[in-house]
# Entry
Amino acid sequence: MTPSAALFDIDTWIFDLDNTLYPPETNFLALIDARITEFVMHETGLDRDAAYQLQRRLLDDHGTTLAGLMGQYGIDPYRFLDEVHDVSHESLKPDPDLRAGLVRLPGRRLVFTNGGAKHAENVLETLNLSDLFDEVFHLEAADLIGKPRPHAYDSLIRTHGVRPKTACFFEDSARNLAPAAELGMTTVLVGPHAADAVGDFISYRTERLPPFLRAVQVRSSSANPTL
Ligand SMILES: [Mg+2]
# Structure
């Protein structure tokens, strides 16, 4: 367990959405992953195994599977987003501990996701977190160019006037933290794999987000609302 982090200078708290604001054991992202495989099967005529291989390769080469599909197959991104995010939210449950951890953070809270606008809105609603975020920077807002492409970070910073030196970014994907650290943000890797991850672009690691947020030392703020 990471000792409680001292983040007194942070006034902008930026969170990835999928597998960060809910834990991977919900298997929710696996549902979307399976929808992406089906989409690739349908578009390419490949069988499931080959489609899955292609999906992973595009993800590795282009940052998101969608970017690869757009670049190499001319896929309509809006149809892709509609189809792959059309999954049941049954496995997602609001977590009062996470909510309490978020509420105590002084300053702005933003979501920075490679998911589409509708997906982000629906998931935040299901998790009962919508009211806690000032802005949601989704894939459409990033001109459909997601993390870890530098354009996505630059665009987030410009659009929402983020000062990297006083921003902290939480992510389950280590490679998405590297560009944030390069810009000067504090970074937190979240998830069961976090303890074993290497890289000096990772400022803090935590297996689970709620206990980290409950323990983190922040500047006091009289304006900070309570539960
Ligand atoms: Mg994620």
